[in-house]
Amino acid sequence: MSVVKKQPVSIVKLKNMKENKDPITMVTAYDYPTAALVEQAGVDTILVGDSLGNVVLGYDSTLPVTIDDMVYHTRAARRGAPNTFIVADMPFMTYHSTVAETLNDVRRLMQEGHANAVKMEGGAEITLMVDACVKAGVPVLGHIGLTPQSVHQLGGYRIQGKTKEDADRLLQDALALERAGAFAIVLELVTDQVAAYISERLSIPTIGIGAGAGCDGQVLVFHDIVRFSPDYREKRFVKTYADIGTTIREGIQSYVQDVKTRAFPAEVNSFRAEDNVVEHLYGPGKVEVR
Predict the structure, then answer these.
(1) Is residue 2 part of a domain?
(2) Residues marked as binding for Mg(2+)?
(3) Residues 179-191 pLDDT 10s
(4) Average pLDDT in the chain
(5) Which one of 5, 13, 80, 148 is least enclosed by Cβ atoms within 10 Å?
(6) pLDDT tens digits for 207-251?
(7) Residue numbering of the annotated binding site
(8) What are the residues whose beta carbons fall under 8 Å from the beta carbon of 29, sequence distance 6 or more?
(9) Which residues are catalytic?
(10) Is residue 5 included in any domain, yes or no?
(11) CA 55 to chain centre
(12) Distance between CA 24 and CA 46 in Å, rounded?
């Protein structure tokens, strides 16, 4: 399959895609090679998510991820995908203090990380910060439903929108984020019917993950799409398109076996000196050590 070259999207184009019923594609990327591959594949948008805490840094949640981590990984992703719209996550507790502190961390993601936009988890309770960022000229992607930064408050990774009260709360949160100026909203682990209804009610795009086909776009974690993990766990809302984890492990096992049996490096993998160098090292008449 050839490399796909596309013009980078903007928040205006994303809204037009919703209106034209052109599904938006988003994939996470946390480093240079991953972002480069994602851009070459023709993905509309890249999310440098704080999920890097789980899949790259080895934490058991997103909570330990810092603003320094996000700046570092966003900058690396930008080098790999210079022509893709990149959204960077605001990590845990970086937008729950003062507006000044929030804007400073946003500034770092934009100036140092070279992000095009930031993402914040939460509903009506974060609209003050969303509004402040938008007024400062920063596009904000909202995120409701399962919000991993609030996993302890939610009581675990639970499906959202299973009751009438929950559905109403999600809708009100989505509308509040839209009024505050968010350019789109991620709906995570929300029941299909509720996610579809919210998508119909909003004028801005919704991007689903485990939220059914009624959203205006979809996002998946790179490591889930290609099953790149030493201890991969099946997820109902994920479709695996490649299994590079197994391929990588088997490749490295073959390398270890070749080294142990001295099959690698072979002569084709080595470089030979001139004959007089061998004679200089070993002396006249000495047999070259191979």
Answers:
(1) no
(2) 50, 89, 121
(3) 999 999 999 999 9
(4) 94
(5) 5
(6) 999 999 999 999 999 999 999 988 888 889 999 999 999 999 999
(7) 50-51, 89, 119, 121
(8) 35, 38, 46, 47, 48, 77, 80, 81, 222
(9) 188
(10) no
(11) 10
(12) 11
Q: Phi and psi (nearest 5°) for 234? A: -65, 145
Looking at the structure, tell me whether residues 37 and 79 fall in a common domain.
yes
Write down the pLDDT at residue 271: 93
Burial environment of residue 97 by CB neighbours within 10 A (0 to 12, 13 to 18, 19 or more) = exposed
Residues placed in the known binding site for 3-methyl-2-oxobutanoate: 50-51, 89, 119
User: From the CB of residue 59, how many other CB atoms can be counted at a distance below 10 Å?
Assistant: 14
Count up the domains in the chain and report the number: 2
Measured CA to CA, the distance from residue 57 to residue 125 in angstroms comes to 29
Tens digits of residue pLDDT in 255-279: 999 999 999 999 999 998 888 888 8
- With respect to residue 6, please indicate whether it lies within any of the assigned structural domains: no
Place of tokens 């507790």: 93
Q: Are residues 192 and 258 in the same domain?
A: no
Which pLDDT belongs to residue 156? 60
